[in-house]
Specification:
The chain is globular. The two termini are 29 Å apart. It has three domains: 73 residues, Uridine Diphospho-n-acetylenolpyruvylglucosamine Reductase, domain 2, CATH 3.30.43.10; 113 residues, Uridine Diphospho-n-acetylenolpyruvylglucosamine Reductase, domain 3 (2-Layer Sandwich); 105 residues, Uridine Diphospho-n-acetylenolpyruvylglucosamine Reductase, domain 1, CATH 3.90.78. The longest helix has 19 residues. Helices cover 28% and strands 29% of the residues. The protein is of the alpha+beta class. The strands form six sheets. Strands 6-7-12-10-11 form a five-stranded antiparallel beta sheet. The protein has a four-stranded mixed beta sheet with strand order 1-2-5-3.
């Protein structure tokens, strides 16, 4: 085994600092990846070992329900580069290890629009297309151009255009057919120099009016989104959490109409002629779980969609709570909640 491989890989590593739920778990092997060359070196030898691999970015969308008996690859590939620029747009290539929120703020500072509604979403740039992150009426897919990813089995670099990624609601091909087969190394976004602002979702418009802003900029939108998110979501540095634990379910209109008849105040967002998206946080709150504490875990007192670690909660404890919530919502509304976080173990 090469000296480079032995230098990069360490054994028996505590993963608690690498996940925002602050769950204690061990990785039998761990490597921080700062370049594509390092990645290819690691992959070449790890495949010979035959040990399981887990790609880890910001750790903001993962629950370790157990230790990981394999090699964790922590992506730390950095850098930003303008690939192309016109009077109207800029194409920005970003290293997968870059912090997502810091990247959003960087683009806002440059006057490049398209991702300002995605401010303060935790995690890395490389994780963003895997999840097709979205918030306040905007999804990553709307500005995504292409990504480069390494095939884990061969180490070869592959390019995936937007169509190749098969983006869906909080979904992509990397969570389905190609799950665990690729590691994202670079992402290219097409950003606008004259952006069309999206202020229709959530409290953005009312907050603009409250602040007396009639002609908002992308900075205004970003600042407001940050303030809204901070008012609803706990800081993972002080209270362990992974943000939204469940996806907002999309149901047939007749299902929503049934719920609306029983709960006249039920919120819903049209997803076309046949389907409606219902906030999972509302369902969980109506089922009686908002702010409830079970052992060392619980739901956040201000947003039932967020499961929090009050200190010392194990991954199994958090998973058990999530399963109780799913059962409760299914019994109350006949709707199956699907976790947004990736559950390991």
């Amino acid at each position: 085994m090469s000296t480079t491989y032995n230098t990069l890989v360490t054994s028996d590593v505590d993963l608690q600092p690498y996940n925002t739920l602050q769950v204690a778990a061990k990785a039998s092997h761990f490597a921080a990846i700062e370049s594509i060359d390092q990645l290819q070196e690691i992959l070449q030898h790890s495949q010979a070992d035959g040990q399981p691999l887990l790609v880890l970015g910001g750790g903001s969308n993962i629950l370790f329900a157990d230790d990981f008996d394999g090699l964790v690859l922590h992506v730390e590939i950095m850098g930003k580069e303008i690939l192309k620029e016109t009077d109207d747009h800029v194409w920005l290539k970003i290293g997968a290890g870059e912090n997502w929120h810091q990247t959003v703020r960087y683009c806002v500072e440059q006057g490049w629009g398209g991702i300002e509604n995605l401010s303060l979403i935790p995690g890395t740039v490389g994780a963003a297309p895997i999840q097709n992150i979205g918030a306040y009426g905007v999804e990553l897919a709307q500005v995504f151009e292409w990504l480069e990813a390494a095939h884990i089995e061969s180490g070869e670099a592959h390019r995936f255009d937007k169509e190749d990624c098969r983006f869906g609601y909080r979904d992509s091909i990397f969570k389905n057919e190609l799950k665990g087969q690729y590691l994202v190394t670079q992402v290219v976004l097409k950003l606008s120099k004259d952006p069309q602002l999206n202020t229709s979702y959530g409290a953005i418009q009312s907050e603009l009016e409250k602040r007396g802003i009639s002609e908002p900029t992308i900075r205004d939108i970003s600042d407001i989104v940050i303030d809204i998110r901070n008012s609803k979501l706990p800081n993972p540095d002080t209270l362990g959490n992974a943000g939204s634990f469940f996806k907002n379910p999309v149901v047939k209109n007749k299902v929503f109409e049934r719920i609306k008849a029983a709960y006249p105040g039920a919120p819903g967002y049209s997803m076309g002629d046949e389907e409606t998206k219902i906030p999972a946080g509302w369902l969980i709150e109506e089922a009686g779980w908002k702010g409830k504490i079970v052992g060392n875990a619980g739901t956040y007192k201000q947003q039932a969609l967020v499961i929090v670690n009050h200190g010392g909660a194990t991954g199994k404890e958090i998973l058990a709570l999530a399963n109780k919530i799913r059962t409760s919502v299914a019994d109350t509304f006949g709707i199956e909640l699907v976790p947004e976080v990736n559950i390991i173990g």
